[in-house]
């Protein structure tokens, strides 16, 4: 897809995907799916048995251009367990000036579980986009997820000299805010290289997961995670029933490795499940 790819009203994508997971006779099924435009899923997978349903969200155009509007809504009903991921990185291409939006909304009912583990988002130089993620939990619902952002394409020698990317993450339980995180990245801004900002790094990410008291995750700076996560720039902590990790570095794969290790520990100690990375990650 070329630069400034067709930002006319007719060329911009308007896409929406609604998914609903339900528990049926000890099995989690994809009970409802509806899509408009180029955002879809093919079929559910059960690599770890019938209780947990794995789904891959597909965006056939392969990238987001100025003016695109993508919306993903996922509802997990009581007792169901779902893991949702993407087969490849989300690429946001440069824009002639029109802002694109990726809107993600997740609702998890009591006694249900959702894992949102997408591949990284690559924001090309001169892109203009916002990504908003809202997670609403009911009762004792559990959730684990991450978002990883790459500013520019370092492997191709591309920086982030212009453009804008805004990222908002919100987690609430029964209407009570548990976590709110917002980042604004302006291309060429001082904070990209300043010691008080990204310090020259261009990859940043946030991991967040429910970690209720008594689940074997003690409150504090989570130094006990060191053996599981291994050395690296990510830092983790547990506070008010949440396990939170922040990555600022230069390598999306390293971010996914560290977040993946934290996710595996969460699965074992909180969700009571054996870690089972999606098969698509190996392709």
Automatic annotation (TrEMBL):
InterPro entries in the record: UreD
One Pfam family of this chain: UreD
Top-rank taxon: Bacteria
Sorted UniProt keywords: Chaperone
GO molecular function terms noted in the UniProt entry: nickel cation binding
PANTHER family: UREASE ACCESSORY PROTEIN D
Family that this chain belongs to: Belongs to the UreD family.
Protein's name in the database: Urease accessory protein UreD
